Amino acid sequence: MNFRTTIILLILLIGAGVFFIVANNSEDPPKKASPTAADESGRKLFDVKSADIKKISVVPGAGVANSSQPLEMTKVDDEWKITKPINWAADSFEGGNLVDTIVDLRSSATIDLTDKNRSGTGLASPRYTVELTDTNGKVHKLLVGERSELGRLYVQSGGETATASVITEGRLAEKLGKGTDGLVANIRDKKLVGISTFDAKQMEITVGGRKLSLVKDANAWKLTSPVDLAADMSEVSDILTTISNLRADAFSNEATATSRGAKFEQPRAVVTLSTAAPATQPATGPASQPAARTVTVYIGQPTDITEEKVWVKVSDPASVATVSLSKSSFEKIADATVLSLRDRRVFDLDPETVSEVSLTTETSGATQPSQKQSLKIERRKENLELGPQMPKPEAGPAAAPATSPATKPSASQSGHLSWVAWASTLARGASLTTLLQSEGAPATKPAVPATLPTTMPSAVASPAGTQPTTTPAAIQPAALPVMPEPPPPPKTKWVLGSAKGADADDATVSNLLFDLHPLRATKFLAAMPAAPAGTQPATQPATSVYVLTVKAVAAGGKATTYELKVTDRGGDTKPIGQYQDLIFELDRAFVDKLKNKFDGTDKAPAPPPRPQGMPQGFPGGGFPGGFPE
């Protein structure tokens, strides 16, 4: 390589380095600003807010499919309501969403309209005419034409006459794609019954030729026909909730429903709800009340073999639809009777008024002889003037002499307190000195010499086999007195009359009486059920029959006797109760309480008493060092 070539390469290398330095140190050129979201989405067609719109109408053009009638909605108390083609509440979300879709329309392009292209855009005879009316009464108009070759939609808004806007189909095309009929079906609130469970004051259930009438008295429901009885709130609430919450899966019409076998002329059940107060109930509200409303629901045949959807016809507002109604929910309506709707309370007995309880148990089986047992429990009779009898006080020690003897007996002679008694006494704030003095310890301490020896004799080991001639007297602490035994536990409220006044177990008796306050049936029956079919006598469980008789005395002294008979066939069968003319099923837990031992012998034994000494958990037990045992 010659010198000239070297110089050229060196110059090129220096130039490349200078370019690299300048390029890295120079500022970036300004970038072109990206278009905003508003620029990309286009011009907004309407200068109005959705919240300011109070009315909207969508009128279909001639020949538009699935558009038999126009749609009109009005906002009332911030809720959208359909006024055409039906008078019906609008779904709050769907109604507001339609208004938002139209108000938020933006133009992506504008074209000039001529006589040649006007018909091609569909704006010469618009497919839909949409009008929005705001709170000031101004009408915002939108004409909707055909789709373009690129799938966009031609529209005209405001005062456009010579031009048209092109918008992306989006949500508007989707909503209008099914015509106004589909739009109404989509916006229409799916709730069929406009009476809530709270507003309902009367209900009538008709199944075949059987009719049940119920009214709400204050906050409680009661049957008025065919009998006058308190109703079970849970059962009535279940039926009310089912009817009030019916929602349409799909709206239809009566002609279509009839052709598909709805059979509304022979409904499986008819339920009528009314907001009118019963005629016998006094008016308690203000003079101006909303007009009473009555809605009748006809439940027709199932739509298919699954029987999970049925045809339903509603009277006000008139509608026909298919609804989801489970088989169990329908059966609760169709099988409603006086027995299923009456209050589950058989009777209500205040335990404090009970004076006597008698129980007779008879058990019989195929392989064992009949056994009969009787038990009588009585409330313990107290002297009402003097109150409950207290235990007699035990004979205490003789009166102490005026002066204490010079010497106290040893601890072994007088006894001492247990550690538990000491601990409990000291825990109440008494000092040890005070305790000893109060129990006979010397009032004054022994005299202490004025002077004490300054030195103590040194410890000298005694010779083996010898003992010192004298030993210092052992200093014994004052003897601890014997605490009186705790009083016996209070006597029980109940005694076993069949066991010569032996104590009854109060908790067991109270648990039984608690279930009578009130006694609740799980299900009422029309007749006493027969024994399970196909059961062989040899394998049939033993049958126990309990007769419970309870005597109660009211505050005025009026005595009432309740007699309850319970038949328990064992196994998986429900215990059957009989009271007066009522037959009903009971919870098995009630029978378990009848089987209890009312003297408490079937309870777990109490833990043994804790031995004297340190409380449980302290190592070693007993008194601390220096205390006598």
From TrEMBL:
Biased composition range(s): Polar residues: 365-374
Signal peptide: none
Domain DUF4340: 80-253
Region Disordered: start-end pairs: 355-413, 597-629
Species in which this protein is naturally found: Humisphaera borealis
Membrane spanning residue stretches: 7-23
Bias kind Low complexity: ranges: 355-364, 392-411
Domain of life of the organism encoding this protein: Bacteria
Biased composition (Basic and acidic residues): 375-384
Name this polypeptide is given: DUF4340 domain-containing protein
Compositionally biased region (Gly residues): 618-629
Keywords: Membrane, Transmembrane, Transmembrane helix
InterPro entries: DUF4340 (IPR025641)
